[in-house]
Design goal:
Oligomer: single chain
Number of domains: 1
Strand content: 5-15%
Strand order of the largest sheet: 1-2-10-7-3
Shape: globular
Number of helices: 17
CATH class: Mainly Alpha
CATH topology: Cytochrome p450
CATH architecture: Orthogonal Bundle
CATH superfamily: Cytochrome P450
Largest sheet: 5 strands, mixed
Radius of gyration: 21 Å
Helix content: 40-55%
Number of strands: 12
Order of helices and strands: HEEHEHHHHEHHHHHEEHHHHEEEEHHEE
Length: about 400
């Protein structure tokens, strides 16, 4: 057995707030991947966990992330998927996200068919219209706000159309999702409650005539011989809207930022649209929109020679796994010609693989198809900036000037 590393130096203590504001965290990940075994990180007080916490084991290497992901009997999601501990009611509010099989399988089956490739293909024309609207906005003026016009617009409008909410409510979803994913726990809790309350009120409009869409499936579903409660329905809608918006928008915007910094890559894409599929995977790998994901050990076990006790928190760092040199040579290089298909930005397999993976891929593919048809060049006017949060690679600043094709 490898001797456990019980703590780490302050500058790479993953639970300390300043780790998420300091530059060079990829170098810290690389150092942790090079260490034997896995490292334990005590939880110090932070905005997302003011009282601190018990600490967690950080899973940094690609193969370790795969092992944890694909063994849900040993590594459970039922105690939450965020590194810090949440109150029980908020954990339950996210429904299937915080369930193990067989409950997770039953709940996922409620909306799973709507996110199957054959059904999503019917939405391609609608997605293309939304993509063109977004590109219109990007081209409308120089020094355009990419966050407002792309991140906070495109994927939100797509998922909102699936759950049949009014277009004018999209701004609410963006604000609530941003706060829910943010570092301030009080604001996150309040925003999540607001999302659930919105979902309950929205579902009430469909009770007399549920239809056969996503809302109809949620309202008419039965679990253990009963219909879902209002709270469960609100949580379901909140989960679909939140999970389907911020991550896809951030991934697309980060990919565009990298293309602007690497104009040779942009030219490759314009010259050879067949690279779009590889480009999408490289966008996903390079962004790692979901930085980390927690499981909780259900029994005493061992991972990479390290003993883990039942009840311990085990946190997978997808961002680190996506830059593991053993899987992705020269990982800091942005390269749309590489095979990045093993990226784990949607998870690393198993029952909790992201439900919205096929939708997100279609959104990104369609957007790039339209972008290379309509845009000649684009230049950064205000660099991409991220808020200091430990779980998501969100974006709060990115401006650029897009020049149309002649």
């Amino acid at each position: 057995m490898v001797e456990p590393t019980i703590d780490v130096e302050d500058d790479i203590l993953l639970t300390r707030p300043h780790f998420w504001t300091a530059p060079g965290r990829h170098a810290a990940y690389a150092e942790l991947r090079d260490r034997p075994g896995i490292t334990f990180h005590p939880e110090v007080p932070a905005p997302w966990a003011p009282e601190g916490g018990a600490g967690y084991w950080a899973v940094m290497r690609y193969d370790e992330v795969v092992e944890v992901t694909r063994n849900p009997q040993i590594y459970s999601t039922a105690k939450g998927t965020q590194s810090e501990d949440w109150p029980e009611d908020r954990i339950k509010a996210l429904g299937m996200l915080h369930m193990d099989d067989p409950d997770h399988r039953i709940w996922r089956s409620i909306v799973g068919p709507a996110f199957a490739p054959r059904n999503l293909d019917r939405l391609i024309d609608q997605i293309r219209v939304i993509a063109d609207d977004v590109i219109d906005a990007l081209l409308a003026e120089p020094d355009v706000d990419v966050v407002t016009n792309l991140v906070n617009s495109y994927p939100v409008r797509v998922i909102a159309s699936m759950v049949e909410t009014p277009d004018e409510d999209a701004a609410k979803f963006v604000e609530w999702t941003y706060l829910s994913f943010g570092a301030d726990r009080e604001k996150a809790n309040a925003a999540h409650r607001a999302q659930i309350e919105y979902g309950i009120a929205h579902a009430a409009k469909f009770r007399e005539n549920p239809g056969d869409g996503v809302m109809g499936r949620i309202l008419t579903a039965e679990v253990d011989g009963r219909r879902l409660t209002d709270f469960e329905i609100g949580g379901f809608i909140s989960l679909l809207i939140g999970a389907g918006s911020e991550t896809t928008g951030s991934t697309l915007a980060t990919g565009l930022w990298e293309l602007a910094k690497n104009p040779d890559q942009w030219q490759l894409l314009k010259d050879d649209p067949s690279l779009i599929g590889k480009a999408v995977d490289e966008f996903l790998r390079y962004t790692s929109a979901v930085v980390q994901w927690r499981r909780t050990a259900t029994q005493d076990t061992e991972l990479s020679g390290q003993h883990i006790t039942a009840g311990d928190k085990v946190v997978m760092f997808y961002e680190s796994a996506n830059f593991d040199e053993s899987v992705f040579p020269d990982p800091e290089r942005f390269d749309i010609t590489r095979d990045a298909s093993k990226q784990v930005s949607f998870g690393a397999g198993g029952p909790h693989q992201c439900l919205g993976e096929h939708l997100a891929r279609r959104e990104m593919r369609v957007f790039l198809e339209q972008l290379i048809k309509r845009v000649d060049t684009f230049e950064i006017t205000a660099d991409l900036r991220r808020p200091p949060v430990p779980r998501f690679n969100m974006i709060h600043q990115f401006r650029a000037t897009f020049t149309p094709n002649p």
